[in-house]
Amino acid sequence: MVVRHDADASAALLEQVNHALNSSAALRIQGGNSKAFLGRKVEGDVLDTRAHRGIVSYDPTELVITARAGTPLAELAAVLDEAGQMLTCEPAQFDGAATLGGMVASGLSGPRRPWSGAVRDLVLGTRLITGMGKHLRFGGEVMKNVAGYDLSRLLAGSFGCLGVITEVSLKVLPKPRQCLSLRLEMDAALALQKLAEWGQQPIPLSAASHDGKALHLRLEGGEGSVAAARERLGGELLESAYWAGLREQRLSFFADPRPLWRLSVPSHTGVLALPGEQLIDWGGAQRWLKSDADAVLIRQAVAAVDGHATCFTAGHCDNPFHPLAAPLLRYHRQLKTQLDPQGIFNPGRMYAEV
Amino acid sequence: MSILYDERVDGVLPKVDKSALLAELREQLPDMDVLHTQEDLKPYECDGLSAYTTTPMLVVLPERIEQVERLLKLCYQRNVPVVARGAGTGLSGGALPLEQGILLVMARFKHIIEVNPEGRYARVQPGVRNLAISQAAAPYDLYYAPDPSSQIACSIGGNVAENAGGVHCLKYGLTVHNLLKVEILTVEGERMTLGSDALDSPGFDLLALFTGSEGMLGIITEVTVKLLPKPQVAKVLLASFDSVEKAGRAVGEIIAAGIIPGGLEMMDNLAIRAAEDFIHAGYPVDAEAILLCELDGVEADVHDECDRVKVVLIQAGATEVRLARDEAERVKFWAGRKNAFPAVGRLSPDYYCMDGTIPRRELPGVLKGISDLSEEFGLRVANVFHAGDGNMHPLILFDANQPGELDRAETLGGKILELCVKVGGSITGEHGVGREKINQMCSQFNSDELILFHAVKAAFDPSGLLNPGKNIPTLHRCAEFGSMHVHHGKLPFPELERF
Ligand SMILES: Cc1cc2nc3c(=O)[nH]c(=O)nc-3n(C[C@H](O)[C@H](O)[C@H](O)COP(=O)(O)OP(=O)(O)OC[C@H]3O[C@@H](n4cnc5c(N)ncnc54)[C@H](O)[C@@H]3O)c2cc1C
Ligand SMILES: Cc1cc2nc3c(=O)[nH]c(=O)nc-3n(C[C@H](O)[C@H](O)[C@H](O)COP(=O)(O)OP(=O)(O)OC[C@H]3O[C@@H](n4cnc5c(N)ncnc54)[C@H](O)[C@@H]3O)c2cc1C
């Protein structure tokens, strides 16, 4: 049985926001603070969401779970696990510290992302404390809902700059019946070529990563398809712990003392020639880079293939998030001004102007 | 309360001098087609919601993006409202024109710019038809997953603007889940890229925000969609039930068994009979409900899942379960479902298609509620249902030539949507709000939520020139709608003065 601590602290959160609005004081929204390293530094009073926690509703046959933002991801995962279901975006849990609100606000997804979608793809509805000091509801618990603008998905990856998320409804899915991992010795260039080829075929892949030495694959599906793919792909069996290590950034690659960069590129991009070490995830669409190279150089190389680069090492870079094109930045500012007119929510966390 | 634009409650529109505008367009954009005579404008007076018509002031049919850019700059300078239109198949009046505005038809942008099999994406112009993308990808054994029933006609630009769905959404997602990137022109005629060829892009997720925004935030000029490998096999089971409740419960049981079908559709007796009459799909006309369950993927898994689902269906009380013998029969089973709207259209001079969504567990109660309302209003209702994801399409049968029937049909439709909202659902799952459901938005959202929607609009289109009056009602409209429409014993928006 999962031990659960449920508490509705939304009234207190709303009061803290209204207080901040009255005194025009900035707030630094914080869940488990497992992502404190990511993004720009925010000056402001801490608004801690962790007292607002617990699962509000969960009906496995509806494939939807609704929980308060401060709920630890570990608790959510355990409850889903009991019903044979999962969050397909496979978020990192960071020793149990990471919260649901933090997961949605940072919008980062694990190894299954290219096949099952990102955090934002699972978000069906949210409750939000706004810059007008109101506690509102957008979206809901239904799979399809196109009434009004899709504010819930906009909040995914907004790093708390548009308001305080208090509750989230997510689509969940049954766990696959069969899961098996393989290791195939080959270099990165060949691995990327193979992945581009296999991507066009109905192979039940659910993760693909190259750690510099070998290609690691995870197969998920029914018994028949997984067995057939294993036969076809060859290689040796791999411990599934590799994927948790990748997700939680515990693989030895991440221990390298050089700054960590996340490069998001089109999946069929060839090997990126950059100083340092690289680890390929998301079937080629996400590359982790450990490098001392200059931020400008990294960003130029990645932008040249229509990608972008985020610095994951605290304090290393003045603008950890990839700079926006001029018109985009202007509309980001306008959106921020409209939704958070006093600029109290995590000012400057993503971009100095937002 | 009429849904046509009403300046009194929807806001005053800028006054535009038609002949001056026409002259200026001819001068600045001499090679762009502009329609201006009553006769030429007529075909554009409505979209798929044909009960409502408004003659646009002018219709423009650009063929190059530079023309759209130029046009938008001009309209911005001259304060002219612009309504975008794709193929005009929308069912909620999203592309309903304005007498005081330009209708910007994007249908001539039909070029498929690139199909990239290694990157598994296609880059297309906004007027490309949904089905044309899958056809262009077919040589690579790839396809574009979202498949609205209107896919032979509707445009990808319209799909993005409505976040269109189809019968395969539960497993493969809506339009929003299958996009990589869109190019847009802002109201000021400035180019902007949302999303990227990678799986995400820096900053806020404006791609998600724009998807389903009904032409209110910008004009879509190019779309990059994801392509998927075609499933090796697809099999369809047709299960008959002697009650809709049992069919509804069977849907939950399939999912509880850990199976996510490619498609899971339900039809009630009236819809079954209409479809059978029209398509001869081989449906059991005496069943109270049927479920169509498609399982797709790798051959070995599909066989296995068919067996599992069969057991579940029989345990759930199906009176008969049939597996389509071959591809021809599978296509036939689907043809019945995909033609359900026109089939029902043959039973009655007019029909009105609703689009509410509900949590699936509420299905029996909502169907009962619909049948009670149907009796109360004296109008037949056929039910077609994307059962897997809780999206209902009740079709209300009426005759617009009978005085008062359109009004009655609309009131009945509005009641059905309110019922959906009451059980935790939404007034629209895929057809959009447009003008059609503008009043029901007041039931689904409170005034603070509507204010936030207007704030989003103001961030991208402060002058309100893009598709005025659609999607988000003014608070005045809600106050007025609410005053004739008291529910739960109290007026919505009590804080607003009545007038
Ligand atoms: C070393 C490291 C590596 C990581 N790598 C990955 C990875 O590879 N894949 C992956 O999926 N995740 C990764 N993460 C992300 C992390 O696990 C999740 O994003 C986590 O859910 C963050 O939760 P938190 O509660 O700790 O958030 P916090 O760190 O507290 O907050 C994260 C951001 O969200 C905002 N925020 C938090 N709660 C709310 C709320 N309720 N409303 C509005 N804004 C809010 C904060 O202001 C902040 O901007 C990594 C984290 C760490 C520490
Ligand atoms: C028989 C039938 C069956 C249908 N079945 C389904 C179904 O299964 N699923 C479903 O989701 N829908 C369905 N629809 C509804 C309709 O086909 C979809 O909403 C479709 O996405 C509309 O595309 P369109 O090109 O016709 O757009 P239009 O009707 O021309 O426009 C729709 C909206 O998009 C905006 N728009 C169009 N192009 C652009 C652009 N380039 N830039 C900005 N805004 C733009 C318009 O302003 C308008 O608000 C059906 C319709 C019919 C008639």
UniProtKB/TrEMBL annotation, chain A:
Q: Name one GO molecular function term.
A: FAD binding
Q: Which SUPFAM superfamilies match?
A: FAD-binding/transporter-associated domain-like, FAD-linked oxidases, C-terminal domain
**What region holds the FAD-binding PCMH-type domain?**
1-175
Q: Which UniProt keywords apply?
A: FAD, Flavoprotein
Q: What name does the UniProt record give this protein? A: Glycolate oxidase FAD binding subunit
Looking up NCBIfam families in the UniProt record yields: PRK11282.1
The answer, when asked if Flavoprotein is one of the entry's keywords, is: yes
Regions annotated as coiled coil = none
Automatic annotation (TrEMBL), chain B:
Sequence ranges assigned to domain FAD-binding PCMH-type in this UniProt record: 52-230
Alphabetical keyword list: FAD, Flavoprotein, Oxidoreductase
SUPFAM superfamilies named among the record's database cross-references: FAD-binding/transporter-associated domain-like (SSF56176), FAD-linked oxidases, C-terminal domain (SSF55103)
Requisite cofactors: FAD
Task: List the InterPro entries.
Answer: FAD-bd_oxidored_4_C, FAD-bd_PCMH, FAD-bd_PCMH-like_sf, FAD-bd_PCMH_sub2, FAD-linked_Oxase-like_C, FAD-linked_OxidoTrans_Type4, GlcD, Oxid_FAD_bind_N
A single cellular component GO annotation = glycolate oxidase complex
**Molecular function terms, GO-annotated:** (S)-2-hydroxy-acid oxidase activity; FAD binding
Cell membrane found in the keyword field? no
What single Pfam family name could you report for this chain, choosing any that match? FAD_binding_4
Protein name according to UniProt: Glycolate oxidase
